[in-house]
Design a protein that fits this description.
Elements: E1 4-15, E2 18-29, E3 33-37, H1 44-52, E4 59-64, E5 67-68, E6 80-82, H2 94-98, H3 100-104, H4 109-122, H5 138-150, E7 156-160, H6 168-185, E8 188-193, H7 196-202, E9 205-210, E10 213-218, H8 220-225, H9 230-235, E11 240-248, E12 251-254, E13 257-260, E14 271-276, E15 292-302, E16 306-313, E17 319-325, H10 326-332, E18 339-343, E19 350-352
Parallel strand pairs: 3-8, 3-9, 6-7, 7-8
Antiparallel strand pairs: 1-2, 1-4, 4-5, 9-10, 11-12, 11-14, 12-13, 14-19, 15-16, 15-18, 16-17
Length: 356
């Protein structure tokens, strides 16, 4: 079992009358890769900067390996950081950029050179030491920034949207490289991102933030399959939402349709949002007719390995978006105007309180 590495306790940050972080408490285990995920302005970068000491909190505590670092300056903390803008020194060579922190730590020249050569090989740029940042591509510059951040062997690596300035193809390649490097080094890592795909593919644990608070903490699988709120459900992946009313402990009303759904935690006549993922809507039937509905295909969009369809369900005022495999599309001849019988499996339905 991993040990607790970082503890954030009741941390808040205010800018005048605006509360950027509101009573945040969180633990990060040693060696974990954690992503702070959320929309712009949700507080994720503010939280990262508080951990680094770059923008101190208004109240609350931060402990790293049992040491209270809450009010220490950045140079007294144990971390390396990679910024979105790379922040490489343009007048220094790649080797000098990577070795900058080692020089500040008074590491002797031979040891410094050996460490720089080791890192250049690790990031796949063994012959780039004599080049300047301007001579490198964006992806290569980000690799150099990463090497510089880990040169001093920090216990904590902080990544502030490190891939957002790169082209999509480079971004996909680099996220695999960063994750592989993090596993190799075993360094505890926190990455800020607004890209849900990055978080889902890279993180051991995702912290979903919204308006200065944490909405949910969990593994990518937990966050996706069991969202704790309507916000998380809508922000992670694609989700259908249907206004519904509780009939009893096992049924909800959606338009003219009654659907079986576990709703023990809610009261009869309570208004809720019923939700289902597009890929959970089925058109191949196993004999169980529970929650079987007639629908018409109003539009269809080819997306490579699957087809996304907009469906008008009879007896409902709202459309559903469904994702069908290419095998389903071929075997059932699904096309614009098709009439389908849908299954909405009760175990795949989610209920949320409040409006979206």
């Amino acid at each position: 079992m991993r040990e607790r590495y970082l503890s954030i306790n009741h941390l808040s940050k205010r800018f005048g009358d605006f509360t950027a972080l509101d009573d945040i408490s969180l633990t990060v285990e040693e060696g974990e890769f954690v992503c702070f995920l959320g929309p712009s302005g949700c507080g994720k970068t503010t939280l990262l900067r508080a951990i680094a000491g770059l923008d101190l909190q208004s109240s609350g505590e931060v402990h790293q390996q049992g040491r209270d670092i809450s009010w220490l300056t950045p140079d007294k903390r144990d971390f390396g950081i990679v910024f979105q803008s790379y922040a490489l020194f343009p007048n220094l060579t790649v080797a000098e950029n990577i070795g900058y922190g080692l020089r500040n730590q008074a590491v002797d020249k031979s040891a410094r050179q050996a460490r720089v050569h080791e890192l250049l090989a690790m990031i796949g740029l063994p012959d780039a030491g004599a080049k300047y940042p301007a001579q490198l591509s964006g992806g290569q510059q980000q690799r150099v920034a990463l090497a510089r951040a880990i040169a001093t062997r920090p216990g904590l690596l902080l990544l502030d949207e490190p891939l957002s300035a790169l082209d999509a193809q480079v971004r996909v390649h680099l996220r695999h490289e960063i994750k592989a490097l993090q596993r190799q080094l075993g360094v505890t890592t926190i990455m800020v991102t607004h890209d849900q795909e990055e978080a889902l593919t890279m993180a051991d644990k995702i912290v979903v933030m919204n308006q200065g608070v944490i909405e949910q903490v969990g593994t990518p699988q937990e966050i996706y399959a069991r969202p704790a709120s309507a916000f998380v459900a809508s922000f992670i992946g694609t989700m259908n939402f249907l206004p519904s009313t509780v009939l009893d402990s096992g049924r909800v009303q959606v338009g003219e349709q009654s659907l079986n759904c576990l709703c023990d935690d809610y009261q009869p006549s309570q208004a809720l949002q019923l939700a289902i993922r597009p890929e959970d809507i089925r058109v191949r039937h196993n004999g169980d007719a529970t929650n079987r509905l007639a629908a018409d295909v109003e539009s269809i969009e080819f997306l490579g390995s699957f087809v996304r369809s907009e469906l008008k369900v009879r007896g409902m005022n709202h459309r559903l978006v469904a994702d069908f495999s290419m095998n389903d599309v071929r075997d059932l001849n699904i096309q614009h105007g098709s009439e389908l019988m849908l299954d909405l499996p009760s175990q795949r339905l989610h209920l949320f309180e409040g409006a979206l």
